[in-house]
């Protein structure tokens, strides 16, 4: 058991860090994430997700692929690697044009919220360099830094979001019991933690070896589903 | 027995506008044959698997260098079947492709099949100069007919004119990260086909993308990527239409 003070110390470098992490990963933080299903809408439509078990399997796969990559990009940004180099690394790791577009749109929305919440020169510089939006994990990493968080915290926020996004959306898409969706996330918690740690370790390696040291795990059905979903005339979620 | 083999192909443009092969060196499991080219000005090489490889513990490597202005097609006589060894050791297969300015490489091997119990780690690194042309096909098949999949990991990195076009890692089969066979990643499918085209071709008017497939431009340069978990015949015919 750790005390609250120790937990706060572990979560970040300064006073208020733990609460800053909670705020940043809160679904109510106005960064636009609620409008996206993380690929769940496309997966539900073509029968890949039918129930809570399918949702759990989907979230698990997303966490260990694009979730890991997003967490590593976020952690590497927080660790101080050049955000523009990491933005290029995110492009190279996102073959789907639809997913790149979504990631930049989410990045732009997070940037707006972050500059109001934790104003700082690093956020301003990235916003100026990528006026149409940097990739969301990169903006998340700069935001975490501005909020006084560590690379591992940024990785946790990204890894958690990679599973929580589809889980929350599935409640609407499948009329799933919200308790069941929460249980899916609770059961994934140990894997979310190990993914965040692996991402932060990779970010540490990237400090010396460059962005090629970051994971590039890919999920073919997420890419294919996103391309199809972007062409739908009517949809519940933006992605 | 552990086999380490590095095969090398070096293609250059000759004085008559054709392509010569000053380097054509098979090694161990990877035998190379110069075969009849079907396109003007190009050379063609067929990789002939001289033995069942890669077997656990093997380290295979093939280096291809296509110098400025040369045109080369590399294909293979048969699928590459990754087989287990009794000690459970992984096999490694590394492909290094370098294509110079104004040069063209068509890399069109038969599929890699991960037989049950096998463990293969593949890396493919492609370096393209500005103005280089590439057609790269990669087909992964998990398990032979009616067989459980082996463990297969790949990392495909493509640089074009100093920028990274694509950096993609895949991991399937026992030992891969949880969820690999679930609805976000492979969803129970047993094949994955990809075709990378640099620069993008004019799309055939009658192009009909098979289900479970996408065709998307990459960010950092003129490139198009076809990805498909459709059954092989659907992928190969679409790939052939795009790579014409």
Gyration radius of chain A, rounded: 17 Å
- State the share of residues found in helices of chain B, binned by percent: under 10%
Distance between the termini of chain B: 41 Å
Question: Domains counted in the coordinates of chain A: how many?
Answer: 1
From the spread of the alpha carbons, the general shape of chain B counts as: globular
| Individual helix count of chain B | 1
The biggest beta sheet of chain A reads: none
Provide the low-confidence segments of chain B as ranges: none
Q: What low-confidence regions of chain A span 5 or more consecutive residues with pLDDT below 50?
A: 1-9
Query: What's the helix-strand series of chain A?
Result: HHHHHHHHHHH
- The percent range for strand residues of chain B is over 45%
Classified by CATH, the class of chain A is Mainly Alpha
Task: Write the CATH homologous superfamily of chain A.
Answer: Urease accessory protein UreF
Q: Mean pLDDT across all residues of chain A, rounded?
A: 94
- Biggest beta sheet summary of chain B: 10 strands, mixed
Multimer state: heterodimer
Structural class by SSE content of chain A: mainly alpha
GO molecular function (chain B): nickel cation binding
Subunit structure (chain B): UreD, UreF and UreG form a complex that acts as a GTP-hydrolysis-dependent molecular chaperone, activating the urease apoprotein by helping to assemble the nickel containing metallocenter of UreC. The UreE protein probably delivers the nickel.
Keywords (chain B): Chaperone, Cytoplasm, Nickel insertion
Pfam families (chain B): UreD
Any overview of this molecule?
The complex is a heterodimer of chains A (239) and B (244). By secondary structure, chain A is an all-alpha fold. Chain A has a single domain, classed as Urease accessory protein UreF (Orthogonal Bundle). Chain A is built from 11 helices and no strands. The N and C termini of chain A lie far apart (40 Å). Chain B is globular and about 50 Å long. Chain B starts with a strand and ends with a helix. In chain B, the strands form 2 sheets. In chain B, strands 3, 4, 6, 7, 9, 10, 12, 15, 16 and 17 form a 10-stranded mixed sheet that branches. A 7-stranded mixed sheet of chain B has the order 2-1-5-8-11-13-14, with no helix packed on it. Chain B has one domain. Chain B has 244 residues and is mainly beta. The interface between A and B is large, with 40 and 35 residues.
């Amino acid at each position: 058991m750790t005390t609250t003070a120790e937990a706060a110390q572990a979560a970040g470098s300064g006073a208020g860090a733990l609460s800053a992490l909670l705020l940043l990963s809160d679904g109510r933080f106005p960064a636009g994430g609620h409008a996206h299903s993380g690929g769940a809408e496309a997966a539900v439509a073509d029968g890949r997700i039918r129930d809570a078990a399918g949702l759990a399997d989907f979230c698990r796969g997303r966490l260990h692929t694009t979730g890991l990559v997003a967490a590593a990009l976020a952690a590497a940004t927080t660790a101080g690697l050049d955000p523009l180099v990491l933005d290029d690394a995110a492009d190279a790791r996102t073959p789907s044009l639809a997913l790149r577009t979504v990631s930049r749109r989410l990045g732009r929305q997070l940037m707006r919220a972050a500059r109001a919440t934790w104003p700082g020169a690093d956020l301003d510089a990235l916003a100026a360099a990528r006026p149409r939006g940097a990739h969301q994990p990169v903006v998340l990493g700069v935001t975490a830094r501005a909020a006084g968080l560590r690379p591992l915290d940024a990785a946790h926020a990204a890894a958690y979001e990679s599973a929580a996004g589809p889980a929350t959306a599935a409640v609407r898409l499948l009329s799933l019991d919200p308790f069941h969706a929460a249980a899916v996330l609770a059961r994934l918690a140990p894997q979310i933690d190990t993914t965040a740690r692996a991402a932060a370790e990779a970010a540490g390696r990237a400090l010396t070896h460059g962005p090629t040291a970051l994971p590039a795990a890919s999920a073919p059905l997420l890419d294919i589903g996103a391309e199809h979903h972007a062409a739908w005339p009517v949809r519940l979620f933006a992605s | 027995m552990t086999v380490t083999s590095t095969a090398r192909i070096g293609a250059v443009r000759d004085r008559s506008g054709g392509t010569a092969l000053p380097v054509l060196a098979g090694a161990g499991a990877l035998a190379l044959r110069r075969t009849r080219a079907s396109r003007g000005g190009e050379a063609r090489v067929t990789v002939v698997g001289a033995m069942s490889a890669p077997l656990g513990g093997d380290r295979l490597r093939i280096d291809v260098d296509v110098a400025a202005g040369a045109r080369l097609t590399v294909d293979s006589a048969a699928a590459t079947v990754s087989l287990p060894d009794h000690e459970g050791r992984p096999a490694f297969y590394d492909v290094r492709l370098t294509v110079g300015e104004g040069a063209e490489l068509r890399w069109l091997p038969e599929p890699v099949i991960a037989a049950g119990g096998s463990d293969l780690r593949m890396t493919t690194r492609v370096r393209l100069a500005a103005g280089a042309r590439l057609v790269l096909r990669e087909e992964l098949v998990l398990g032979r007919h009616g067989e459980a999949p082996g463990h297969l990991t790949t990392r495909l990195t493509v640089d074009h004119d100093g920028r990274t076009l694509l950096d993609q890692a895949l991991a399937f089969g026992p030992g891969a990260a949880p969820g690999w066979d679930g609805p976000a990643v492979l969803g129970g499918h047993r094949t994955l086909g990809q075709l990378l085209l640099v620069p993008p071709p004019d799309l055939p008017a009658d192009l009909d993308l098979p289900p479970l497939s996408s065709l998307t431009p990459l960010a950092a340069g003129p490139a198009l990527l076809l990805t498909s978990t459709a059954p092989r015949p659907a992928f190969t015919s679409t790939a052939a239409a795009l790579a014409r």
